């Protein structure tokens, strides 16, 4: 079981999310979900099979 703190640290330091400039729970929730989607897509791209091998994935 992992911890959640590395996600916050990555979003803050690597992606530059230091502050959300919207007001209201609904607006902030939408922006936060978009940042989380961006983080998860980055992980999928990084860990997909064949990433960085220079060849096509078969099978």
UniProtKB/TrEMBL annotation:
Domain Transposase DDE intervals: 3-44
Highest rank taxon of the organism: Bacteria
A Pfam family it matches: DDE_Tnp_1_6
Name assigned to this protein: Transposase DDE domain-containing protein
Source species of the chain: Haloferula sargassicola
Lineage, uppermost ranks: Bacteria, Pseudomonadati, Verrucomicrobiota, Verrucomicrobiia, Verrucomicrobiales
């Amino acid at each position: 079981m992992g911890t959640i703190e590395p996600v916050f640290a990555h979003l803050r330091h690597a992606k530059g999310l230091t502050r959300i400039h919207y007001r209201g729970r609904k607006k902030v929730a939408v922006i936060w979900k978009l940042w989380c989607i961006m983080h998860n897509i980055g992980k999928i791209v990084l860990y997909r099979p064949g990433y960085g091998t220079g060849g096509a994935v078969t099978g």
